[in-house]
Amino acid sequence: MADADLTVEEARLKRMRRPDLVLPQGLAMLEKQRASLGNSQWEIREQVFMAALDLHKFEIARKQFELLEQRFPTSLRVRALEGMIFEAQAHHSGLTSEQSSKLAGRAMEIYTEIVLALCHELNVVCAYTSQSLMKILSTYSRGSGRQLNAYLEMYPTDAEAWKELADVYLEMQQLENARKALEEVLILAPMSYLSHLKLAEVLYTLEEHHLARSYYAQSLELKSSLSMDNSRAALGMILCTTVKLMEIARDHLVASYECCPGASKGPELRAVQAWLT
Amino acid sequence: MAVNVEVDAYLFPMLHALKYSQYAVNGVLLGTSKQESVEIVQAIPLMHRDLCLSPMLDAAFALIDEHCKAKSLQIVGYYHANAQHNSNGISPTARRIADKINETMKERDAKARTCLMMIDNNEFEKLAAYLVGGTSAEMKKTFGLTIYTKADNGDWKSASDVNIKGFGDESTPARLLELVRAGKQNSVVDFENHVDHHEKRWLDAQIPA
């Protein structure tokens, strides 16, 4: 992917985390083209805010936050941004653990306010962000699922939140809990090839190869590797299956390499073929 | 026992970690194990998401094994960078994977040795500070990572004799700085990238020009 072609808008739509590009380009847009941006100015400000936090440029972040707060004084989404500033500052190097927890605590207060006010506005941003706060307070804490679980008790049909909870459990290496969360995701979003894939990977890690195989198969059915995009499921399937079924998966994998123009020249295809014959 | 690291085998793990600075990343180290030393000549990036899940790891190792046979290299180690800034010790996942590699390599050859390369964010920050304007004496010894080897009692012990090529004359840190300034870390290809885009070179990737 050519770097120069990545626009601020593309980065937002594809949810790419490229603060090195977004910050300078976004700031330039806000400065020079403000008149022509109209209302998209505000989304760009939020994006620039995030990029600034990533790069620890707190002054820039604060400035964008203040402009957003002026424009949307009652917005919970904007209030969450304030929490994020404290959260990011808590991560900054050179702080004592006391200073760090104090900042993290401040962010947590703000997030808790927002979570409590969730009846009227579904601001899901802060439920996620509070997870990273937990990371600061204690690295491998078991308590980290708490906020999300509480949120999910109120809104059990939020597939995104279940996905997030699964990620939290994976980080704590609580595979059984991650599996349960992913099963919930699949109930809510049964056509998602990525969720089938992820559950298959967790099951494989739990050494339930037989069950993993059926989820890999589902994932492949939903998105076939013959159009090149699901070789991850093909790989998983190969690892799980007996010889007969392996042939199906192997053909998927080799086909995915063969229909890709540059791939046939590389050592990876040779390694795949050597491995599978 | 000395651990000697080639320039690219140092640059790749650092660039991989920088590309995904918000995630944990890992990879495999290839080289040769000698009587008095381990020579690490190549680093192959593996993953940046869900490092505790096994299937992609198993698939990558199967392919790397075939590649090693073709190139007469061995797997001599594993590198890992934790996600959090303050977490610089050996994480449970890193330990588990490194132990598994050590076990597998020892099954094939009782004399095989495995190194565990943990990227250290605090040290890395010091190196960055020196690069931008510090004393060069300090910089020669600040790699931004710690290499561990297996002691007889099974513990991972920090290796005392680590030599990374190009630190003595400061050429390697300068090169790292140059690459980062040009944003080259974004061109590093790990196994996950390769699986999503087969045309991206992975097993024989070069440092992005």
UniProtKB/TrEMBL annotation, chain A:
TPR repeats: 159-192
Similarity-based family: Belongs to the EMC2 family.
Protein name, as recorded: ER membrane protein complex subunit 2
Lineage, uppermost ranks: Eukaryota, Cryptophyceae, Pyrenomonadales, Geminigeraceae, Guillardia
Domain EMC2 TPR-like span(s) in chain numbering: 147-209
Organism from which the protein derives: Guillardia theta (strain CCMP2712) (Cryptophyte)
Keyword vocabulary terms for this entry: Endoplasmic reticulum, Membrane, Repeat, TPR repeat
Topology within the bilayer: Peripheral membrane protein
Oligomer and partners: Component of the ER membrane protein complex (EMC).
SMART domains: TPR
Domain of life: Eukaryota
InterPro entries: EMC2-like (IPR039856), TPR-like_helical_dom_sf (IPR011990), TPR_EMC2 (IPR055217), TPR_rpt (IPR019734)
Function: Part of the endoplasmic reticulum membrane protein complex (EMC) that enables the energy-independent insertion into endoplasmic reticulum membranes of newly synthesized membrane proteins.
Membrane recorded as keyword: yes
Compartmental location: Endoplasmic reticulum membrane
UniProtKB/TrEMBL annotation, chain B:
InterPro entries, A to Z: EMC8/9 (IPR005366), MPN (IPR037518)
Gene3D superfamilies in the record: Cytidine Deaminase, domain 2
Top-level taxonomic group: Eukaryota
Cellular component annotations (GO), alphabetically ordered: EMC complex
Matching PROSITE patterns: MPN
Segments forming domain MPN: 3-133
Family affiliation: Belongs to the EMC8/EMC9 family.
Protein name: MPN domain-containing protein
Annotated organism of origin: Guillardia theta (strain CCMP2712)
High-level lineage: Eukaryota, Cryptophyceae, Pyrenomonadales, Geminigeraceae, Guillardia
